[in-house]
Design goal:
Elements: H1 2-10, E1 12-18, H2 23-34, E2 40-46, H3 51-57, E3 63-67, E4 74-76, H4 86-99
Parallel strand pairs: 1-2
Antiparallel strand pairs: 1-3, 3-4
């Protein structure tokens, strides 16, 4: 049981701020679904459900954060071009996974 808990801590957690009807968000979510490596947990946050999220991200979505497992701080990930490939997204995530 202890080994499985250690394994779970190694999986990166991404926080994805989005809203219904956002085509850029839908495109990024689709690409995230195709990423093979690294393994990550994805938490979707609809900015229309909380006023503070809406005020912070209404003009910025889609927004991705990496949650630091040691202190739960959110580290913003660079915004990718909508034309970015799945491979480019994987490279970005691998870079942040290895440095996070």
């Amino acid at each position: 049981m202890e080994d499985s808990k250690a394994f779970l801590r190694l999986i990166m957690k991404l926080i994805f701020y989005s809203k219904p009807g956002c085509h850029l968000c839908e495109g990024l979510q689709e690409k995230l679904g195709q990423v093979q490596n690294p393994t990550f947990e994805l938490e979707m946050r609809d900015i229309t459900t909380r006023e503070e999220w809406f005020q912070a991200y209404q003009y910025e979505i889609p927004v991705l954060f990496l949650e630091n497992p040691s202190n739960s701080q959110l580290v913003p990930l660079p915004r990718l071009s909508p034309r970015a490939t799945v491979q480019q997204l994987e490279s970005l995530l691998q870079k942040y996974c290895s440095t996070g």
